[in-house]
Amino acid sequence: MTLMAADHRPLASYLALRDELDLDDLHRWWWSSGRVLWLPRVSGPGTLTWHPLSDPAHTVLGSFGIREPDPVRVPAEPLPEDATVLVPGVAFT
Q1: pLDDT (tens digit, 9 = 90+) per residue, 16-73?
Q2: pTM for this structure?
Q3: How far apart are alpha carbons 17 and 87 in whole angstroms?
Q4: How far is the C-alpha of 9 from the C-alpha of 83, rounded, in Å?
Q5: Is 15 exposed, middle or buried (0-12, 13-18, 19+ CB in 10 A)?
Q6: Sign of the alpha-carbon dihedral angle for 48, 82, 77, 58
Q7: Which of 21, 25, 56, 68 could covalently link to 41 via disulfide, CB atoms 3.0 to 4.6 Å apart?
Q8: Run of H or E residues at 24
């Protein structure tokens, strides 16, 4: 699937660790087109919440040293069912 500006499905992504593929350029492009990017936040043991960000400045250093949405500035919301989700991975079998 190609992500194009005309594609109006929600996009969920991640903020990369040093050893993961850095998608910051994609995120900046997405935000520059006036779109919301859904990002996860570790909200408890084994629990992620999703936050709709329209500004990269609304992140903080969170669990495990990972940048994540600031829950005070951007409250959690249910991830839209039709979202395209980008997931980091190192190896798959």
Answers
A1: 888 888 899 999 999 999 999 999 998 888 899 999 999 889 999 987 788 999 999 9
A2: 0.84
A3: 12
A4: 6
A5: buried
A6: positive
A7: 68
A8: helix 24-32
